[in-house]
Design brief:
Structural class: alpha/beta
Number of strands: 8
Shape: elongated
Order of helices and strands: EHEHEHEHHEHEHEHHEHHHH
Number of helices: 13
Largest sheet: 8 strands, parallel, barrel
Radius of gyration: 24 Å
Strand content: 5-15%
Bound molecules: phosphoenolpyruvate, manganese (II) ion
Strand order of the largest sheet: 1-2-3-4-5-6-7-8
Distance between the termini: 53 Å
Protein backbone atom coordinates (compact mmCIF):
# COMPACT_ATOMS: atom_id res chain seq x y z
CA UNK A 1 0.00 0.00 0.00
CA UNK A 2 1.27 3.45 -0.85
CA UNK A 3 -0.26 5.42 2.04
CA UNK A 4 0.87 5.74 5.65
CA UNK A 5 0.29 2.52 7.56
CA UNK A 6 0.36 2.36 11.34
CA UNK A 7 -0.25 -0.80 13.32
CA UNK A 8 0.26 -2.15 16.81
CA UNK A 9 -1.62 -3.07 19.93
CA UNK A 10 -4.25 -0.90 21.54
CA UNK A 11 -2.13 -0.92 24.70
CA UNK A 12 1.44 -1.66 25.66
CA UNK A 13 1.03 -4.48 28.20
CA UNK A 14 4.51 -5.87 28.82
CA UNK A 15 7.98 -5.50 27.37
CA UNK A 16 7.66 -8.85 25.67
CA UNK A 17 4.23 -8.12 24.15
CA UNK A 18 5.48 -4.77 22.82
CA UNK A 19 8.55 -6.33 21.22
CA UNK A 20 6.64 -9.27 19.79
CA UNK A 21 3.99 -6.95 18.33
CA UNK A 22 6.62 -4.64 16.85
CA UNK A 23 8.41 -7.55 15.15
CA UNK A 24 5.10 -8.76 13.70
CA UNK A 25 4.22 -5.27 12.49
CA UNK A 26 7.64 -4.87 10.87
CA UNK A 27 7.35 -8.31 9.24
CA UNK A 28 3.98 -7.26 7.79
CA UNK A 29 5.86 -4.47 6.00
CA UNK A 30 4.49 -1.60 8.10
CA UNK A 31 6.79 1.27 9.03
CA UNK A 32 5.11 2.92 12.00
CA UNK A 33 4.31 1.09 15.24
CA UNK A 34 1.63 2.17 17.72
CA UNK A 35 1.04 1.16 21.34
CA UNK A 36 -0.93 3.13 23.94
CA UNK A 37 0.77 3.74 27.29
CA UNK A 38 -1.94 5.90 28.82
CA UNK A 39 -5.41 4.55 28.06
CA UNK A 40 -8.38 6.87 28.33
CA UNK A 41 -11.24 4.73 29.62
CA UNK A 42 -14.82 5.84 29.55
CA UNK A 43 -15.42 4.29 32.99
CA UNK A 44 -12.80 3.82 35.73
CA UNK A 45 -11.84 0.31 36.70
CA UNK A 46 -10.67 -0.93 33.28
CA UNK A 47 -7.03 -1.28 32.31
CA UNK A 48 -5.75 2.29 32.30
CA UNK A 49 -2.41 1.54 30.70
CA UNK A 50 1.06 0.91 32.09
CA UNK A 51 1.94 4.62 31.83
CA UNK A 52 5.50 5.88 31.95
CA UNK A 53 6.76 2.43 32.93
CA UNK A 54 6.28 1.33 29.32
CA UNK A 55 8.17 4.14 27.58
CA UNK A 56 11.41 2.14 27.71
CA UNK A 57 9.65 -0.81 26.02
CA UNK A 58 8.75 1.41 23.07
CA UNK A 59 12.31 2.70 22.85
CA UNK A 60 13.65 -0.87 22.99
CA UNK A 61 11.18 -2.00 20.30
CA UNK A 62 12.26 0.89 18.08
CA UNK A 63 15.91 -0.01 18.54
CA UNK A 64 15.35 -3.72 17.89
CA UNK A 65 13.11 -3.34 14.83
CA UNK A 66 14.11 0.00 13.33
CA UNK A 67 10.43 0.99 13.30
CA UNK A 68 9.29 4.49 14.06
CA UNK A 69 7.01 4.28 17.14
CA UNK A 70 4.12 6.39 18.39
CA UNK A 71 1.87 6.57 21.43
CA UNK A 72 -1.05 8.60 22.70
CA UNK A 73 -0.41 11.81 24.62
CA UNK A 74 -3.32 13.15 26.62
CA UNK A 75 -1.61 15.93 28.60
CA UNK A 76 1.53 18.06 28.67
CA UNK A 77 3.26 15.57 31.00
CA UNK A 78 2.83 12.76 28.46
CA UNK A 79 4.25 14.98 25.72
CA UNK A 80 7.37 15.68 27.77
CA UNK A 81 7.91 11.99 28.56
CA UNK A 82 7.59 11.12 24.86
CA UNK A 83 9.95 13.83 23.67
CA UNK A 84 12.49 13.10 26.41
CA UNK A 85 12.63 9.54 25.08
CA UNK A 86 12.90 10.46 21.42
CA UNK A 87 9.31 9.50 20.57
CA UNK A 88 8.49 12.21 18.10
CA UNK A 89 5.22 10.97 16.65
CA UNK A 90 2.27 11.18 19.04
CA UNK A 91 -1.46 10.86 18.65
CA UNK A 92 -4.25 12.73 20.37
CA UNK A 93 -7.15 10.45 21.21
CA UNK A 94 -10.80 11.19 20.52
CA UNK A 95 -11.61 12.15 24.10
CA UNK A 96 -8.64 14.52 24.33
CA UNK A 97 -9.53 16.20 21.04
CA UNK A 98 -12.98 16.92 22.49
CA UNK A 99 -11.37 19.04 25.22
CA UNK A 100 -9.88 22.33 23.97
CA UNK A 101 -8.11 22.98 27.29
CA UNK A 102 -6.25 19.67 27.08
CA UNK A 103 -5.37 20.25 23.42
CA UNK A 104 -4.07 23.75 24.21
CA UNK A 105 -1.88 22.39 27.06
CA UNK A 106 -0.46 19.78 24.71
CA UNK A 107 0.19 22.38 22.00
CA UNK A 108 1.93 24.65 24.54
CA UNK A 109 4.10 21.78 25.78
CA UNK A 110 5.04 20.85 22.23
CA UNK A 111 5.91 24.44 21.36
CA UNK A 112 8.00 24.83 24.52
CA UNK A 113 9.97 21.72 23.49
CA UNK A 114 10.51 22.94 19.92
CA UNK A 115 7.74 20.76 18.42
CA UNK A 116 7.75 17.17 17.28
CA UNK A 117 7.83 15.31 13.99
CA UNK A 118 4.20 14.32 13.55
CA UNK A 119 0.92 14.66 15.44
CA UNK A 120 -2.02 12.40 14.62
CA UNK A 121 -5.29 14.04 15.59
CA UNK A 122 -8.27 11.71 15.93
CA UNK A 123 -11.78 13.03 15.42
CA UNK A 124 -13.69 13.79 18.64
CA UNK A 125 -16.42 11.29 19.67
CA UNK A 126 -19.19 13.71 18.68
CA UNK A 127 -19.82 14.37 14.97
CA UNK A 128 -18.48 17.91 15.26
CA UNK A 129 -16.05 18.93 12.52
CA UNK A 130 -15.46 22.31 14.17
CA UNK A 131 -14.14 20.66 17.33
CA UNK A 132 -11.81 18.46 15.26
CA UNK A 133 -10.59 21.46 13.25
CA UNK A 134 -10.21 23.53 16.40
CA UNK A 135 -7.78 20.95 17.79
CA UNK A 136 -5.86 20.92 14.53
CA UNK A 137 -5.63 24.71 14.54
CA UNK A 138 -4.32 24.74 18.12
CA UNK A 139 -1.60 22.26 17.11
CA UNK A 140 -0.59 24.17 13.98
CA UNK A 141 3.16 24.71 13.90
CA UNK A 142 3.88 21.96 16.46
CA UNK A 143 4.67 19.28 13.88
CA UNK A 144 3.19 17.69 10.77
CA UNK A 145 -0.55 17.28 11.36
CA UNK A 146 -2.31 14.11 10.24
CA UNK A 147 -6.04 13.70 10.85
CA UNK A 148 -7.42 10.29 11.84
CA UNK A 149 -11.04 9.33 11.27
CA UNK A 150 -12.05 6.86 14.00
CA UNK A 151 -15.82 7.14 13.76
CA UNK A 152 -18.37 8.91 15.92
CA UNK A 153 -20.36 7.81 18.92
CA UNK A 154 -23.81 6.90 17.66
CA UNK A 155 -26.96 5.56 19.16
CA UNK A 156 -25.59 2.01 19.09
CA UNK A 157 -28.19 0.82 16.58
CA UNK A 158 -25.73 0.20 13.72
CA UNK A 159 -23.29 -2.68 13.38
CA UNK A 160 -20.28 -0.57 14.37
CA UNK A 161 -18.83 0.53 17.69
CA UNK A 162 -18.51 4.04 16.27
CA UNK A 163 -20.53 5.23 13.28
CA UNK A 164 -18.26 5.95 10.33
CA UNK A 165 -20.38 8.88 9.07
CA UNK A 166 -18.27 8.81 5.91
CA UNK A 167 -19.97 11.94 4.66
CA UNK A 168 -18.32 13.92 7.46
CA UNK A 169 -14.87 12.51 6.73
CA UNK A 170 -15.33 13.30 3.05
CA UNK A 171 -16.50 16.82 3.89
CA UNK A 172 -13.43 17.25 6.11
CA UNK A 173 -11.15 16.17 3.28
CA UNK A 174 -12.82 18.32 0.68
CA UNK A 175 -12.41 21.37 2.93
CA UNK A 176 -8.82 20.57 3.93
CA UNK A 177 -7.17 18.70 1.09
CA UNK A 178 -3.66 19.47 2.34
CA UNK A 179 -4.12 17.61 5.67
CA UNK A 180 -3.41 13.89 5.24
CA UNK A 181 -6.39 11.85 6.44
CA UNK A 182 -6.04 8.34 7.82
CA UNK A 183 -8.76 5.94 8.85
CA UNK A 184 -8.70 3.91 12.07
CA UNK A 185 -11.00 1.03 11.07
CA UNK A 186 -10.43 -0.75 14.39
CA UNK A 187 -12.20 1.82 16.56
CA UNK A 188 -14.98 2.23 13.98
CA UNK A 189 -15.54 -1.53 13.72
CA UNK A 190 -15.34 -2.62 17.35
CA UNK A 191 -15.08 -6.22 16.13
CA UNK A 192 -12.25 -7.65 14.06
CA UNK A 193 -14.56 -9.16 11.40
CA UNK A 194 -15.71 -5.69 10.34
CA UNK A 195 -12.23 -4.15 10.09
CA UNK A 196 -11.50 -5.19 6.46
CA UNK A 197 -14.66 -3.71 4.92
CA UNK A 198 -14.09 -0.40 6.68
CA UNK A 199 -10.42 -0.29 5.70
CA UNK A 200 -11.34 -0.96 2.07
CA UNK A 201 -14.07 1.66 2.12
CA UNK A 202 -11.56 4.22 3.41
CA UNK A 203 -9.16 3.41 0.59
CA UNK A 204 -12.00 3.69 -1.93
CA UNK A 205 -12.74 7.15 -0.57
CA UNK A 206 -9.13 8.15 -1.15
CA UNK A 207 -7.90 8.16 2.46
CA UNK A 208 -4.14 8.56 2.85
CA UNK A 209 -3.55 5.55 5.08
CA UNK A 210 -4.73 3.41 7.97
CA UNK A 211 -4.12 2.95 11.69
CA UNK A 212 -4.92 -0.63 12.65
CA UNK A 213 -4.91 -2.33 16.04
CA UNK A 214 -3.13 -5.66 16.14
CA UNK A 215 -2.06 -7.87 19.04
CA UNK A 216 0.00 -11.08 19.22
CA UNK A 217 -2.91 -12.74 20.99
CA UNK A 218 -6.05 -10.59 20.65
CA UNK A 219 -8.28 -12.69 22.89
CA UNK A 220 -5.94 -11.93 25.79
CA UNK A 221 -5.55 -8.23 25.11
CA UNK A 222 -6.11 -6.02 28.15
CA UNK A 223 -8.05 -3.45 26.12
CA UNK A 224 -10.13 -3.52 22.93
CA UNK A 225 -9.75 -7.27 22.69
CA UNK A 226 -12.65 -7.79 20.24
CA UNK A 227 -11.32 -5.44 17.57
CA UNK A 228 -7.60 -6.26 17.43
CA UNK A 229 -6.31 -8.37 14.57
CA UNK A 230 -3.94 -11.27 15.05
CA UNK A 231 -0.69 -11.01 13.05
CA UNK A 232 -2.11 -13.47 10.51
CA UNK A 233 -5.31 -11.45 10.16
CA UNK A 234 -3.24 -8.31 9.68
CA UNK A 235 -1.26 -9.90 6.85
CA UNK A 236 -4.46 -11.25 5.28
CA UNK A 237 -6.02 -7.81 5.43
CA UNK A 238 -3.03 -6.15 3.80
CA UNK A 239 -3.06 -8.76 1.04
CA UNK A 240 -6.77 -8.19 0.47
CA UNK A 241 -6.86 -4.40 0.33
CA UNK A 242 -7.17 -3.00 -3.15
CA UNK A 243 -6.10 0.46 -4.19
CA UNK A 244 -8.43 1.29 -6.98
CA UNK A 245 -6.37 4.00 -8.62
CA UNK A 246 -8.25 7.16 -9.27
CA UNK A 247 -11.76 5.78 -9.14
CA UNK A 248 -14.00 7.89 -6.95
CA UNK A 249 -11.32 10.53 -6.53
CA UNK A 250 -13.62 13.34 -7.62
CA UNK A 251 -14.33 14.98 -4.24
CA UNK A 252 -17.80 16.17 -5.25
CA UNK A 253 -18.80 12.69 -6.36
CA UNK A 254 -17.26 11.18 -3.22
CA UNK A 255 -19.20 13.49 -0.97
CA UNK A 256 -22.46 12.86 -2.81
CA UNK A 257 -21.95 9.09 -2.62
CA UNK A 258 -21.17 9.26 1.08
CA UNK A 259 -24.32 11.34 1.64
CA UNK A 260 -26.37 8.86 -0.34
CA UNK A 261 -25.02 5.99 1.75
CA UNK A 262 -25.92 7.86 4.92
CA UNK A 263 -29.46 8.44 3.65
CA UNK A 264 -29.83 4.77 2.67
CA UNK A 265 -28.72 3.79 6.15
CA UNK A 266 -31.34 6.12 7.66
CA UNK A 267 -34.00 4.79 5.28
CA UNK A 268 -33.34 1.22 6.36
CA UNK A 269 -33.45 2.16 10.06
CA UNK A 270 -36.72 4.02 9.55
CA UNK A 271 -38.22 1.07 7.66
CA UNK A 272 -37.10 -1.30 10.40
CA UNK A 273 -38.70 1.03 12.99
CA UNK A 274 -41.93 1.07 10.96
CA UNK A 275 -42.02 -2.74 10.82
CA UNK A 276 -41.54 -2.92 14.56
CA UNK A 277 -44.52 -0.61 15.15
CA UNK A 278 -46.59 -2.68 12.69
CA UNK A 279 -45.77 -5.86 14.59
CA UNK A 280 -46.89 -4.18 17.82
CA UNK A 281 -50.13 -3.09 16.13
CA UNK A 282 -50.61 -6.69 14.96
CA UNK A 283 -50.35 -7.94 18.55
CA UNK A 284 -52.86 -5.35 19.77
CA UNK A 285 -55.30 -6.35 16.98
CA UNK A 286 -54.89 -10.00 17.82
CA UNK A 287 -55.61 -9.36 21.51
CA UNK A 288 -58.71 -7.30 20.62
CA UNK A 289 -59.90 -9.82 18.00
CA UNK A 290 -59.70 -7.13 15.28
CA UNK A 291 -59.11 -7.98 11.60
CA UNK A 292 -55.59 -7.39 10.25
CA UNK A 293 -56.73 -5.37 7.24
CA UNK A 294 -58.93 -2.39 7.91
CA UNK A 295 -59.63 -0.81 4.50
CA UNK A 296 -60.85 2.55 5.84
CA UNK A 297 -57.65 3.07 7.74
CA UNK A 298 -55.45 2.09 4.79
CA UNK A 299 -57.25 4.50 2.40
CA UNK A 300 -56.68 7.28 4.89
CA UNK A 301 -52.94 6.44 5.12
CA UNK A 302 -52.69 6.46 1.32
CA UNK A 303 -54.46 9.81 1.00
CA UNK A 304 -51.97 11.34 3.42
CA UNK A 305 -49.01 9.71 1.65
CA UNK A 306 -50.07 11.05 -1.75
CA UNK A 307 -50.73 14.55 -0.54
CA UNK A 308 -47.42 14.72 1.37
CA UNK A 309 -45.58 13.22 -1.63
CA UNK A 310 -46.93 16.02 -3.85
CA UNK A 311 -45.85 18.66 -1.35
CA UNK A 312 -42.34 17.18 -1.39
CA UNK A 313 -42.21 17.17 -5.18
CA UNK A 314 -42.43 13.37 -5.44
CA UNK A 315 -44.52 11.52 -7.97
CA UNK A 316 -47.76 10.34 -6.28
CA UNK A 317 -47.75 7.01 -8.09
CA UNK A 318 -44.16 6.37 -7.02
CA UNK A 319 -44.99 7.10 -3.37
CA UNK A 320 -48.08 4.86 -3.64
CA UNK A 321 -46.00 1.95 -5.00
CA UNK A 322 -43.49 2.21 -2.16
CA UNK A 323 -46.23 2.24 0.45
CA UNK A 324 -48.04 -0.67 -1.17
CA UNK A 325 -44.85 -2.71 -0.80
CA UNK A 326 -44.42 -1.59 2.82
CA UNK A 327 -48.06 -2.36 3.55
CA UNK A 328 -47.90 -5.84 2.02
CA UNK A 329 -44.81 -6.63 4.12
CA UNK A 330 -46.47 -5.28 7.29
CA UNK A 331 -49.60 -7.37 6.69
CA UNK A 332 -47.58 -10.51 6.18
CA UNK A 333 -45.66 -9.71 9.41
CA UNK A 334 -48.93 -9.38 11.30
CA UNK A 335 -50.28 -12.72 10.17
C1 LIG B 1 -6.75 4.08 20.74
O1 LIG B 1 -6.27 4.40 19.64
O2 LIG B 1 -6.43 3.06 21.35
C2 LIG B 1 -7.84 4.91 21.30
C3 LIG B 1 -8.10 4.97 22.58
O3 LIG B 1 -8.53 5.51 20.34
P1 LIG B 1 -9.69 6.64 20.39
O4 LIG B 1 -9.09 7.81 21.07
O5 LIG B 1 -9.95 6.83 18.95
O6 LIG B 1 -10.86 6.04 21.13
MN1 LIG C 1 -7.94 0.91 21.31
Amino acid sequence: MKGLLIAGPCSAESEEQVLQSAIQVRDAGIGLFRAGLWKPRTRPGGFEGVGEAGIGWLVAARERTGLDVCTEAACAGHVRICLDNGITTIWLGARTVANPFAVQDIADALRAAGGCRRILVKNPPSPDLELWLGAIERLQGCGEIVAVHRGFKGGGSGPYRNDPLWELAVEFRAGHPSIPLLCDPSHIAGTRELVPEIAQRALDLGFDGLMIETHPNPSEALSDSAQQLSPKELEALLALLVERGNSGSDPVLEELRARLDAIDEQLLSVIAGRMEVCRNIGEVKKRGGLPIIQPGRWEEVMRKVESRASELGLDKGFARRIFEILHAESVSNQE
